[in-house]
Amino acid sequence: MKDIRFGIIGCGLMGREFASAAARWCHLQQMDARPVLAAVCDTTPEPLRWFTDNFAGIKQSTTKYEELLANPAVDAVYIAVPHNLHARLYCDAIAAGKHLMGEKPFGIDLAANRAIQSALKKNPAIFARCSSEFPFFPAMQRICRMIERAEFGTILEVNASFQHSSDLDPAKPMNWKRTIAANGEYGCLGDLGMHPLHVPLRAGWLPRNVRAILTRLYAQRPGRDGKPTTCETWDNATLLCETADPQTGTTFPMTIKTQRIAPGEKNSWNFEILGSRRCARFSTKQANTIQLLDYTGGEQCWQQIDMGHEMTYPTITGGIFETGFPDVILQMWAAFVSELAHRKTPGKFTGCVTPQETYLHHKILTAALESHRTASVVKIDPN
Ligand SMILES: NC(=O)c1ccc[n+]([C@@H]2O[C@H](COP(=O)([O-])OP(=O)(O)OC[C@H]3O[C@@H](n4cnc5c(N)ncnc54)[C@H](O)[C@@H]3O)[C@@H](O)[C@H]2O)c1
Asked: Which residue of 21, 165, 336, 363 sits 20 to 30 Å from the alpha carbon of 377, by its own alpha carbon?
């Protein structure tokens, strides 16, 4: 078993999820590499305590990320910090020779993403990927294999969304995601966009153009002191994209929704593909179910299949048991560690988001901002 010594920079919500996944690595079968937590860093000392209390192997706990990057006992870093810090911290990590799992959107905007891309070009030995876990649900992995085998026929339409309602409550206090300084002009686009775009970009469905409509519901929320504070970022975005299918050469409409105020949605990632021969649907609302419609002439009938624990990276869990969020986080990390160790993935859709895919997603999001600003259809230049 090869140990990959990890440092975590940003010990909030997502930093803890990774640590917990690393702690149950024994759940995975057939892995010949594993993450070992060696160092943690957060600017506030409080969250560090959870890590040092739970992981005896952590030898370095610091409030300065430069110290962690200078640690020769760290091979790779997971950086999960607010978006305004992505470019600086990711570029510094790459220059320090650390392999990188970065969080989305991999730079607060297109310019920041370009800076990360150029740091990677200068350091070609560094392996870098972006976190996005939802395609690792078994149902999505099955749909992805169907895409790979062109089982849908001519694609008629694709609808992908990430919708939650955590901002529906106007009394929810402000946080960094509602400020342009920390979350950028993108708002919900940058915060959520990588999730619905991950599978389309891996499939090669690059939109030719986009018409986007962005909305902001609440102008103010209570600040830390309880006083009304201005919310600066977009809450909801709907993108209608004219998209080409490289397998057939045809174009189809693709909608991408990223919404923080979606009534009735707690945390739903949805994917629907309608084709001339087959259609498929998946929603994390019913994380164990895949819906399929095969058209061979005659009746059209949606069928439901219970997926169970059909994992891309096999686990000890019995095949009939259901899958949840921590399971797909573990799968995503298995994909990262396995690709870092072997520089290949078992299939087209079984690896994490590449830096080039984050660049393309920034091109789409930047065009979406312009489309909304000018109320027009904006061409997307992939270069
Ligand atoms: N993949 C997912 O499903 C998912 C879910 C939520 C958030 N995210 C992404 O993860 C990243 C972090 O989000 P979060 O929800 O974990 O945020 P969070 O606020 O819970 O945690 C961020 C942590 O970073 C720390 N921090 C800030 N500046 C730092 C610095 N200079 N050095 C070290 N630590 C610093 C903060 O103190 C905080 O503890 C963002 O990019 C966000 O988009 C991804």
From this structure: 165
Whether residues 289 and 210 fall in one domain: yes
pLDDT tens digits along 209-242: 999 999 998 889 999 889 999 999 999 999 999 9
106 Cα: distance to centroid of ligand 1 (angstroms)? 12
Classified as helix, coil or strand, 315 is strand
| CATH number of the domain encompassing residue 276 | 3.30.360.10
Q: Is residue 314 scored above 90 in pLDDT?
A: yes
- Best residue for ligand 1 mutational test, from 11, 14, 68, 69 (most atoms within 8 Å of Cβ): 14
For the CA of 175, the nearest atom of ligand 1 = 19
Instruction: Tally the C-alpha atoms within 13 A of residue 295's C-alpha that lie toward its C-beta.
Output: 11
- Token output for 285: 């609302």
| Pair 234, 304 in one domain | yes
Distances from the Cα of 277 to the Cα of 146, 203, 273, 329, angstroms? 11, 18, 11, 32
Q: Are 88 and 216 contained in the same domain?
A: no
Confidence of residue 247 (pLDDT cuts 50, 70, 90): confident
Residues 281 and 227 in one domain: yes
pLDDT tens-digit series, residues 121-130:
999 999 999 9
Q: How many domains does the chain have?
A: 2
pLDDT at 248 over 90: no
User: Domain containing 303: what range?
Assistant: 136-318+354-378
- Residues 17-64: pLDDT tens digits? 999 999 999 999 999 999 999 999 999 999 999 999 999 999 999 999
Range 295-324 average pLDDT = 95
Residues with CB under 6 A from ligand 1: 9-14, 41-44, 47, 65, 80-83, 85, 103-104, 131, 133, 191
Ligand 1 atom closest to residue 9's alpha carbon, by position in its atom list? 33
Q: How close is the Cα of 82 to the center of ligand 1, in Å?
A: 5
Burial of 123 (0-12, 13-18, 19+ CB in 10 A): middle
Q: Whose CA is nearest to atom 31 of ligand 1?
A: 43
Tokens 């000890």 appear where?
A: 316
